[in-house]
Every structure is written in C-alpha cells, then in structure tokens.
Amino acid sequence: MKIVVCVKHVPDVQSERRMEDGHLVRGEEDVLNELDENAVEAAVSLVEEHGGEVVALTMGPEDAEDALRRALQMGADSAVLVSDEALAGSDVVVTARTLAAAIRRVGGGQGTGDVDLVVTGMASLDALTSLLPGALAAELHVPALTLATDLEVGDGDVVITRTVGAVREVLSAPLPALVSVTDQANEPRYPNFAAMRAARRKPLETWDLAALGLEPAEPSVAVLCDQERPGRAAGIIRTDAGEAGRELAAWLVENQLV
Amino acid sequence: MTEIPAGSVGETFDAPVLVLVDLETPRASAAEAVSLLAPSRAGLALVAGAAALTRADVVALALGPVGADASAALAGAGATRVLAADLGQAGTQAGVVADALVSAVRTVKPAVALVLSDYHGKEVAARAAVLLGSACTADASDLRVREGALTASKTVLSGSWSTTLRIGGAGTTPVVAVRAPEVEVPGPAAPVAVEALDVVLTPESLAVRVVSREPAPTASGPDLAGARTVVVAGRGVGGDIDLVRSLADPLGAAVGATRVVCDEGWLERSAQVGQTGVSIAPRLYIGLGVSGAIHHTSGIQGAGTVVAVCDDAEAPIFQMADFGVVGDVTTVVPQLVEELDRLRA
C-alpha cells in the first residue's frame, strides 16, 4: 500500500503570529502543523500493519523541509517538497491543484497511479479553514472521508468512524481515497534518537511547478486589508482569600451578565 | 497594504445569489413525516443576508422534499426561487451535496453561492469550488459587493487579526462558507413554487457508502453553539461535573468541556469546545478549572465576557479573562452559586 500524507509547516501557535502585506509571516518559529502529526501517525500505523510505504508531501518555501524531516522521523519513508516562488500566496484551490499534481507524479500512472490513500490532518493551525481535504479530493477525483476519529483499511476499501454535529457515522469508500483525521484519531509517536538518525538518510526531493508540468496560477482570493485586532483590556484578577466567589457573583449581577 | 475599494453604498449584483439551505426535522415533531421538514434557522439567516447582495433572484437550494411551509419560510426570508433536489440518504454526504450545488450553479448562473461555515459546509464549498474552477473561502462574514466583486471579512490567527478578502475572478461563481449572520428573519410569506433540480452525481461522490448513521450521544440542556451563557469544565474540575452543573443549571447555561475532560470521559465528546470541537460565541463564558490552552481558546474568540476560576495563577486564561479568580473551584464555585442565588432572589 502506498500512502501520501500531506503536511504543512506553520507558525507555532505559541509564537507571536502576524500578517504582513496580506500574508502570514512565515519562517520565524515554524513547526510541523500539530494536527498533521495525527495524519502522519495514521499513515505510518497503516503501513506498519499492512506493509507498503508512506510518502510525506508538502508545499511551501524551502524551510518547509523541516516539517518533512519531522514526518520522516515519525516514520515516513520518503518526502517531497513542492517549492516555487510562483506559489507564494496560493489560495486553497491553487494549493489543491498543485498537491494533486505532485500526488499523481508520486503515483506515476493514470489518475493517482499506485497511490492508494491520501491522508491529511483536519485543519492547519494557521488558517484553520479545513478546506483543503475536500478541495484535494475533488482535484484527484477520489472519494473523501473527512474528520475520521478511526480508520481501517480492508480489502480494497477504507472505513472510517466520525462524530460530527449530532451524528455518529461509519463511512466506507473504495481505494484510492482521501481521508482527513482529527486529533482524536491517535496519539502521535515521539521519535526516539534512532528514528531521528535514520530520518537523515531518507530521500527528500524538491520539485518546482515545471517539474509538475504546471503553469503559475493567479489565486482568486485576494487579501485587501489586514489588521491586528485590539487586545482585550486587562481584566480584574482576584486571588481567593475566602470572598472571591461572592465578589464574582456581585460583579456578574452588577454587569447584568446573569 | 491594498486599500479596500469603497464601492457605492448598497452596491448589489445583477446576477442571482444561490444559497444552500439545510432542512431539518423540527425537534417537537421528530416522529412526524418529512412534510414537516423546515429550513434551519441559520439557513434562513443566510437567505436573508443574501437578499441584501443582489437585485436579481435569491435562489434557495434545499436537498430534500420542500413542502409549502418550508417554501413559505424561505420566501419570507427573501428567497424568490426555491430549488429542491431529493437525494435521499445520500444527501447527507458532502460530496453529493457539492455535486448538487454544482448542478444548481450551472442552472442558475449566480454571482456567488453561499453555504454555512460548519464542517459540512466547508467541505461542500471546497469541493464545489474546485469542480467549478472557481474560488472559495470559509468562516466569512460581513459580505459586501464592492466594484462588482464579492468581499468578505474574516478573522485569522485565533482571532488576533482581521482581514478583508476579495473573492473570485471574472466570470466564475465563488463558493463561500459564511458564518450565519445575526439577522432577524422575517416570518413566512406566500410560498414560491418549488422547482425540481436535476443533479449530476460524480462517481467519487457516489462511492462514499454510509455503513451506519446514528445520533451521537449529546448532553442535555441548551445547545452549546448557540447558547448565551456557557460554563466550561476544564481539567481542574477533576471529574466533578455536578459542580459545573450546579452553576450552569441555575443560569440556564450550556455545559462545555475542554479536550482533556472529554478524553477522560467526564463529559461526552459533543461538549468539547475549541479547535477540534465546537466554536462558541456566548455573551458570557465561564471557565472552571480551564487553563486556556490555545487549542481551547481558539474556539471561544466570539465570547463577549470571559470569566475564569482556576487555581493556577500562571494559566493563560487569565490573560483573556474580564474577571478571573485564582482559587480552588471546589470552594469558589459553591460560594458563587450561593451568592448568585441570594442576589438574584
């Protein structure tokens, strides 16, 4: 079984994230998108169980290689970075088109070739839109099973469980397919020293748009304006010395909140 | 940074606007027939919002049988045409819904197609936009027409930045997942005729099989996403959910939880607030034993007033609290409940 796991290099949510000229400032304190660790774990576990290989894929600037290194440390067998200056500022449609072309190249055949499964995280912690899985499945013309909390690959199909809204569903689809996983799907492994050392010898290729046979595309979502929102004014903080509950009650009533 | 084009006041599209509307069975009559299917409140709000964007038709698309009552509700909200495609059980799946939306766009040729920005709507929007070769975005609000193009606002980076976007290129129909606008929806009007929509389904959408589908275990009490007051249980309450309810119940508040609380099984998963759970926008948020990890607080950006009780003075929640108590929940909360009871008597 050949699995492509799509990952993203994003600013650490604990860092001072900001925008500049309509773009998120990258490359300062970037890490593998935490929710993609669940995708890598899911892909690596499936291959441990069924055999095969995991290819980690990302699109981004050169230093997005760090996210791929992390995926390799977690057990991916090889990695592909799609990097091209013309891709800066891509919207989700352009991103999906580019990743789909890379997946087809990894598969090396008609459609997705010998790629059986594409796994993604449920969202990236920069934009948090969760649009990519649906867009990528549409580009690849494969079924999408999203927000899985559990997935199993059987005889030529994939079965997921998910709880969304007020509904718990079990869904299945024939392979090839795309699955996005939530952070409830598994506990991502923490690479040990041996895994980190082994990752250094794993293949990592970089492809540009020309290598994928793509022309640059104009993103059709443009940021006209960005602005930091004013922080909240400092609130009242009380350390309880026996009366704080009463004080809070009075404050809630006074401010007509209850 | 580019300036926002001012646009004329009240600028509108010449082309129609298409709105995907969820149909739901009214709770009071769950056992009744499908003739009682009604548009969701959020869906009606989306129709009402769409009516301000165009001087042409507002076209509502529903996936299911639309009865006279449902059509009247849609007409009252501002729909001038109603399309219905009854896809049965398959109509619950985003791929099929996106295919239906694509068919509707090809029929109606709207300036923009709107869906609700929930997990389902986002997947529909992304798929439909790719199939249409157009653009999409999610979590949009404050939609306007400026210089003939659609603009929308959205907050990013856990609510710390706001952006204004121009969505879509010439001659394409962007698909936008919109946060339901807070608008008053007018009552029913004379129903409009319901037109049947022919849907071209793609093989990959049809390939998704529903093995089973059942209601998820949910908490009793007010609906979390729409609640005006939410009391959230964090790790610091231990398993003591009764303590949390002792505050929530008299306030008529919904009970939420952080991820750890759900992982531990103290509350059902549907109560989880945050990145991988529900996003909430209550007037009052009260966190009990919640430290305020970003995974949780990204889901409470819409809260009006934030109150926190937590025994860790260093907890990040205190940086966003309007009123914070550093203390033991097991002593502070009973005192709070008792005093509220007295003051409100």
TrEMBL record, chain A:
The keyword Secreted does not apply. Keywords: Electron transport, Transport. The keyword RNA-binding does not apply. Residues 21-216 form the Electron transfer flavoprotein alpha/beta-subunit N-terminal domain. GO terms for molecular function: electron transfer activity. Its cofactor is FAD. One of its GO terms (cellular component) is cytosol. It comes from the Bacteria. InterPro entries: ETF_a/b_N, ETF_b, ETF_beta_N, Rossmann-like_a/b/a_fold. Heterodimer of an alpha and a beta subunit. The electron transfer flavoprotein serves as a specific electron acceptor for other dehydrogenases. It transfers the electrons to the main respiratory chain via ETF-ubiquinone oxidoreductase (ETF dehydrogenase). Belongs to the ETF beta-subunit/FixA family. This is Electron transfer flavoprotein subunit beta.
UniProtKB/TrEMBL annotation, chain B:
Residues 42-199 form the Electron transfer flavoprotein alpha/beta-subunit N-terminal domain. Belongs to the ETF alpha-subunit/FixB family. It comes from Actinomyces respiraculi. Its cofactor is FAD. This is Electron transfer flavoprotein subunit alpha/FixB family protein. The keyword Flavoprotein applies. Heterodimer of an alpha and a beta subunit. Pfam families: ETF (PF01012), ETF_alpha (PF00766). InterPro entries: DHS-like_NAD/FAD-binding_dom (IPR029035), ETF_a/b_N (IPR014730), ETF_a/FixB (IPR001308), ETF_asu_C (IPR014731), Rossmann-like_a/b/a_fold (IPR014729). The electron transfer flavoprotein serves as a specific electron acceptor for other dehydrogenases. It transfers the electrons to the main respiratory chain via ETF-ubiquinone oxidoreductase (ETF dehydrogenase). GO terms for molecular function: electron transfer activity; flavin adenine dinucleotide binding. Keywords: FAD, Flavoprotein. GO terms for biological process: fatty acid beta-oxidation using acyl-CoA dehydrogenase. Residues 223-301 form the Electron transfer flavoprotein alpha subunit C-terminal domain. Binds 1 FAD per dimer. The keyword Flavoprotein applies. FAD binds at residues 235, 258-259, 272-276, 289-296. It comes from the Bacteria.
